[in-house]
Amino acid sequence: MTDTINLLQDIIKKTKTKGADAADAVHADGTSLSLTYRLGAVEQLDRSEGGELGLRVLVGKRQAIVSTSDTSPKSLDEMIERAVAMAKAVPEDEFAGLAEPDQLISGSVPDLDMFDPIEPSAKEMEEMARAAEESGLAVKGVSNSEGASVGFSKTRVTVAASNGLAHSYARSGFSVSASLLAGSGTEMERDWDYSGAVWLEDLRSAAEVGKTAGENAVKRLGSKKVSSGVMDVVFDARIARSLIGHLSGAINGQSVARGTSFLKDAMGKDIFSSDINIVDDPLRQRGLRSAPFDDEGLVTKKINVIEDGVLKSWFLDLRSARQLGLHSTGHASRGVSSPPHPSASNLYLEPGQKTPEQLIGEVKKGILITELIGMGVNQVTGDYSRGASGFWIENGEIQFPVSEFTVASNLKDMFKTMTAANDLVFRYGTDSPSIKVRAMTIAGT
């Protein structure tokens, strides 16, 4: 870690001697292993190791970014020369710039328990994948498998800048998934399950993941078409998180500053019912998207994005904050070869009081959606239209599986009529309990 920080600081010093006014550098070094297993045999095993270094150079209000995986002295000198030359040639960006020194995180970096030192072997990962597939195939009605996958990664991120920033942190990740088929011929149905965690001990068992995937597939057998109409819809927790993702995109500072968000004028207004609260928490212990500081070196903190239904905050990095005349919210994210941009961390809708079964019980005639297809969402207008499948609800009870229909509305209307269940599980980074939305348009037969 110390050697990498020294390397980055040396690069920044050389960059300034070549004519840069400011510079920052990021180095990501890691290992990843992924294994795919199908019908009793390993289909694919991939392992990658290595690091990449990115340098951002500012000459006045002009900036350029160059990256390399070759850290030999000659290669780094060439990268510095190229980056400075590029920065002198590009147009000015009046909002570009590093953080002021007093904006940077100071003192010790918080320990968020983001790194598990365990590194599973290929054999251990194969056993996990086998357990997932075998438990899925053992479910009555399952006829075939699309496979099970297991993944592992560890990464160390180091950042340094001419404003005094110099920090490093490590993170790890584990995942297991399975996809099973039920039925045969034209009556075949597919479904899946997934688990991801920062620590291996927090991962759901592979056998449980496979079993759930198989059971989900069997439940979809005998799917019917649905009639068109306006009705209430319940989004299963597994896919309800996509609605929170659409909110995240709409309150991203870049979209707001460009005027391309359907919520660009909604700050401080009621956009949900008063019982809805949505939180972004980058400091959650073992969170999938936790970070002790953002990628511009600013402090990260837990914020209420939606509080009692009211929009309280955008997601801002330094550039978008300057453009809007505001302060960064500590949400800068960047890759080695890209500039910082705003991004959510551990974003979630707080659970409500009712169980998913109670939400379903309130629906006289409607649909429980368990899968969404396509990306028919307009972030400028909020118009929402997606293919879907799920289960028909009548008189508060699930009747039979349904498929091949479209669900449509506008996200503003959907947010206003949203009711959250109590089944929140942190699984993806953007998470939600099951959600009921009133009066959506269903286009079926």
Distinctive features:
PmbA/TldD fold, alpha+beta, five-stranded mixed barrel, 9 helices, globular, six-stranded antiparallel sheet, 445 residues, 3 domains, 23% helix
Please explain how this structure is put together.
By secondary structure, the chain is α+β, with helices and mostly antiparallel strands. A six-stranded antiparallel beta sheet has the order 3-2-1-4-5-6. The longest helix has 17 residues, at 73-89. It has helices spanning 2-17, 73-89, 122-137, 206-219, 237-250, 253-258, 318-324, 356-361, 411-416; strands at 22-38, 41-59, 62-68, 142-161, 166-182, 189-197, 229-235, 278-280, 303-307, 310-311, 332-333, 341-342, 347-349, 365-373, 383-394, 397-410, 419-420, 430-431, 435-443. It folds into three domains: 2-32 and 48-103, 2-Layer Sandwich (PmbA/TldD fold), CATH 3.30.2290; 122-219, PmbA/TldD superfamily (PmbA/TldD fold); 223-445, no CATH class. Helices cover 23% and strands 36% of the residues. The chain is globular and about 70 Å long. The relative contact order is 0.13. Strand 4 and strand 5 form a beta hairpin. It is built from nine helices and 19 strands.
